[in-house]
Amino acid sequence: MAIKKSELYSSLWESCDKLRGAGGMDASQYKDYVLTMLFVKYVSDKYTGDAMSLIAVPEGASFDDMVALKGQPDIGDRINKEILRPLFASNGLEGSLEIVDFNDDEKLGSGKEKVELLSKLIAIFENPALNFKNNRAEDDDVLGDAYEFLMRHFATESGKSKGQFYTPAEVSRILSKVIDVHKADKPSFTAYDPTCGSGSLLLKVAGEAQNGLTLYGQEKDVATKGLAIMNMWLHGYPEASIAGKNTIASPQFKDENGQLKRFDFVVANPPFSIKNWDSGIVPLDDVYNRFRGYGVPPDKNGDYAFLLHIIASLKSTGKGAIILPHGVLFRGNAEAAIRQNIIERKLIKGVIGLPANLFYGTGIPACIIVIDKEDTDSREGIFMMDASKGFIKDGNKNRLREQDIHQIVDVFNTQTEVEKYARFVSFSEIEKNEYNLNIPRYIDTQEAEDIQDLNAHLNGGIPDGDIDGLQRFWEVYPTLKSHLFSRFRESYSQLNVAASDIKSAIYEHPEFTAYSDELALVFDSWKDKIYDDLQGINEHTAPKKLEKHISEALLHEYNGKPLVNPYAMYQHFMDYWNDMMKDDVYLLAEDGWVAKPNVY
After folding, report:
1. DSSP labels, 190-245
2. What is the DSSP letter of 254?
3. What's the angle, vertex CA 384, arms to CA 193 and CA 290, rounded to 5?
4. Could you report the per-residue pLDDT of 74-122, keeping only the tens digit for each?
5. Rounded CA separation 552/352 (Å)
6. What is the pTM for the complete model shown?
7. Would you say 512 and 481 are in contact if contact means Cβ atoms under 8 Å apart?
């Protein structure tokens, strides 16, 4: 019987983390060993013996051959020479993926200690449930989910200074969904990340395209670049181009004229406010003309250098999104001039303010700036969003919930104005604010103060203003208001029922019960629409497509219903899906509806 995926991932992490603790290695270093092992396991399972595959697994260089090395006194040296080097060389990756040395005495210990550590690490990946050979569920991405699980945990454990290789999946999903990637119907459409880290953001963008994309990424850290290459291979993009070196000083993707290659989509989560960003170049003499007409960012703050690089790297119809600190929206001097020049060219489609403490490299709040070159002629302003209050605590970090992601994407893509959340701001208003894009200037998120009425405290009665503040309830329950309250004196009311009976008075009121029945019918309508889909789960079921179908149907049913937040209803389902239902659906797709007896 297939193991539940949540149990598999937890077990995988616990084993790896326990082994790391025994060796005393830093999480940011240990991840490279674990992910290299995952890479070897995956390509061995999927491609060994497949002569038609793009990926070659040389004889003697598979995961099974690595297993045979367990307990050998020279295990580390032989993994390097007999497994990794032949595997990488056979696929044109020699020199690109040697991100770890399995014979490093300093990190792994020496003698018996190293032999035991590496043997135990190999044994973790011998878990029969971690099998990539045959996944019966159509979109059973055991590998992708396991990789995401490990990367999140390694980023959490690595600390602020070393966790920047990973962009949280929730934020990556937003970037990928607000730049119209879903409209790309051919794999020839291109996507580029100039600071790609381990490639997670770039892959989320590719996942939004109907038929995939042609991917390009650049990452200056050698080890992280190696992770990105492995990540591309692990997720079915072995032909992705991942380059090294510093993107600002030495961009690696150029056209036949030596100018920057231009892409359909560009996304980035660059290091925030990096100093000495212009090392190696003279910005005003930049051969790629990235700063001409805009201005030169200050030497001590390179945020706009990355934004201008993205603008220069987009086709005339291209769309991009970049994560930057809020300071880019309002800082003055050189940055103010650059911001004005960008705004006057109408390149910014929108600005999305995010919660603080989402990222592993920093705790400061960030924003997403969405660039759209295609519609500059008709653009009349910038769509501003303050999504900073929608999150859940997750350990020492904040994390966007499913409902937060869905609402941000829906509101942005439909350009729907929502009080205290989102509005379209005209260029004339922005000009009056001297091109300052600080979100609080345009969206007031302050909640009304709970003002104490001294008159009521001294003379009794409930202020009518407090009762009128519940108008959205009285619109649904029009006679409930008069049932609960009556005139006490001018501008003040009194309760008609005892305080202890308020709950029962509301719950038993005919308008309350009638609307409760109406909402029950809404749920029944959703259940009827998806019941056959749930009953029909089989080996051909694509669990991720099923989840999207039934969750979107639920959101649609509750949309527009008074007193109900459809995104909160959506979140209830997604919590249940992620906690329990996802595992059950995958098990049904793997094993069918007839339970198999346990074998002891």
Report:
1. EEEETT-TTSHHHHHHHHHSTT--EEEEE-SSHHHHHHHHHHHHHTT-TT-EEE-S
2. B
3. 40
4. 999 999 999 999 999 998 888 777 788 999 988 888 899 999 989 999 9
5. 23
6. 0.90
7. no
Tokens of 437: 């894009």
Higher pLDDT, 34 or 143: 34
Q: Give per-residue pLDDT as tens, 236-245.
A: 888 999 999 9
Structure tokens at 237: 């993009």
Closest residue by Cα to residue 65 from 88, 51, 48: 48
- Alpha-carbon distance 428 to 381, whole Å? 8
For helices 303-312 and 334-344, give the axis angle rounded to 10 degrees.
Answer: 30
Per-residue H/E/C for 313-357: CEEEEEEEEEEEEHHHHCCCCHHHHHHHHHHHCCCEEEEEECCCC
Backbone angles phi, psi at 351, to 5 degrees: -130, 125
Q: What are the contacts of 495-503 at 24+ separation with CB within 8 A?
A: 495/462
In whole angstroms, give the CA distance from residue 512 to residue 524: 18
Buried b (16+ CB within 10 A) or exposed e, 15-32: bbbebbeebebebbbbbb
Q: Which amino acid is at 450?
A: D
Angle at 112 between CA 111 and CA 117, to 5 degrees: 105
Which is nearest to 294 in space by CA: 258, 335, 249, 263? 335
Q: List, in sequence order, every residue forming a beta bridge with 370; answer none if it has no partner.
A: 321, 350
